[in-house]
Write a structure and sequence with these properties.
Length: 131
């Protein structure tokens, strides 16, 4: 009984609730955006720039290892790996302000693509980060 109560409490925790409703933004991405490709994919200089931008703007919530902090989602998840470049670009531009993800429309397009090129170099959850 105690265990049941603990489980119930756990499933009602804000983190669990947040986890249950993350990913719904993907349904809002228009088809045209969904199909876009990152022009900087695999380009060393752009990836290095994206890494710096990521560390400057994103680590407070998503962590240096991009595993997410305090209930914010990991950016190395299966969902993010399956999302298209265009999905991620849309999310970065618009954010999901009601769920705590700020829009990054103040960054130039080029910088948002650089961040995505960097995200694409990250290992899946469970694999070590490169130095
Ligand atoms: C103030 C905290 C905060 C900052 C800073 C932040 N994010 Fe987020 N981010 C969130 C939250 C909260 C969510 C979950 C939103 C949702 O579920 O719709 C999220 C979701 C995301 C998602 C979708 C994740 C998923 O699994 O659905 C991506 C991609 C993302 N953020 C990328 C970034 C990038 C790149 C930056 C830096 C440019 C950044 N975020 C900065 C809080 C933040």
């Amino acid at each position: 009984m105690k265990r049941f109560a603990a489980l119930l409490l756990l499933s009602l925790s804000p983190v669990a609730l947040l986890a249950a409703v993350t990913g719904t933004w993907l349904r809002r991405v228009p088809e045209e955006d969904h199909r876009r490709h990152d022009p900087y994919l695999g380009q060393t200089t752009a990836i290095a720039a994206g890494r710096q931008l990521f560390q400057h703007n994103c680590t407070p919530c998503h962590g240096f290892d991009a595993m997410g902090r305090y209930g914010r989602p990991s950016l190395r998840s299966v969902r993010i790996r399956r999302a298209t470049d265009g999905d991620l670009a849309w999310m970065l531009q618009h954010g999901d302000p009601f769920k705590g993800m700020p829009p990054w429309s103040s960054l130039p397009d080029q910088q948002r693509w650089q961040i995505i090129a960097y995200l694409r170099t990250l290992p899946p959850i469970g694999k070590p980060m490169p130095r």
